[in-house]
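Input.
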Amino acid sequence: MTFTYYAALSYLAASLMASGVHHVTSLASFGGIVRSHRLMPSHLAMPLAILVTVFELVAAGTALVILFIGEIGAQAPLLFSICAVLGLAFALYVQKLLRHPEGITSCGCSSFAGPLTVASIIPALALMLVSLLGLAATAWSFENTFNLNFSVVLPLLWGATLALIINLLPASMPRPAI
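Output.
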């Protein structure tokens, strides 16, 4: 469970920080992408883009604090629970986009530019699944003492690598033939 706990926190930190930093550096573009989805009134697109960006940065920062401060307490289960729920909400959002993809160039789900394809839902489902695994790991109430040794470094690297792979996946899909 220690491996799962550290890998899940590392995944959340790496995945959400990468997308949050990308979204904050291209906020106008991200707002335009959300507007192009046409799932809400256009005047709400930028506030939603800002809300998503703030969540990503705060959740990633929280995951880093939990990792390095070392106290599980209520913070880790709460973070995992919120990320699981928002992962599900994001998956449902992308599923709606996939039902009517006309005119949508991207879901905005990755730091890397890529078309809207079935693979676009994978980051959302991965966020939900990793969060649920992390939540399950916290149920085993082990001692979270962050000592930089092999039993911690390996899951940290594994979680960050998985985040990179999942983040690259939607961008690596070929554009659908029209």
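Helices lie at 2-25, 27-36, 45-69, 75-99, 122-138, 150-172.
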